[in-house]
Here is the input.
Amino acid sequence: MHHTIEVQNLSFQYPDGTAALRGVSFVIQPGEKVGLVGPNGAGKSTLMLHLNGILRGQGQVKVCGLPIEEQNLGRVRAAVGLVFQDADDQLFCPTVFDDVAFGPLYMGLPPDEVRRRTAEALAAVAMSGYVKRVSHHLSVGEKKRIAIATVLSMQPEILVLDEPSAGLDPRARRGLIRLLQELPQTMLIATHDLRLVAEVASRTLVMDAGQIVADGPTAEILYNAALLARHGLEMP
Here is the structure.
């Protein structure tokens, strides 16, 4: 069984010379749900964009055993579902159905399969009644669920989520936490919401200044007050 995500000695500089990642290494096993926490500017989003080849640095990134190289990009992007912080970056079609069907249609799947996958993805996020709704008229929490459904319809093995609870009211946030607990995919969740990490992730990586400064069981990391304080984080 291939490690789901394998990152070895990954470094990345932006064109202006800013070092965003400095020698990052970790492995995520199949089915693991891992939190990624750290202050703003730690490199969390930059790291996530390497996991499906949007950015390429020095070092090695492998997804499901495939190195991220030109000839593997199609398969890697099918395996990694990236859910952006702002759902509006992900929703651009006239209706919810069209948004969720977009990926499977783009993959060239037959219409019956597209409909089946769309229905399954909406059911998985408890949004089956929203097929004909206009994405832009939904609440932030509803948009977040639809954005996750647009990724689930591609049947990825891995979900990579950037600040999934940002902007959600308490009820929508509870629903999102339940959803993330129930979904079977391997997950990497970058967030400032440490209570969400405590409830969803069994393991947590702490990033600061482009490096992983701690990696361990969530319960140990999140109750290490000195560690959190050193890296600008507060105990949940």
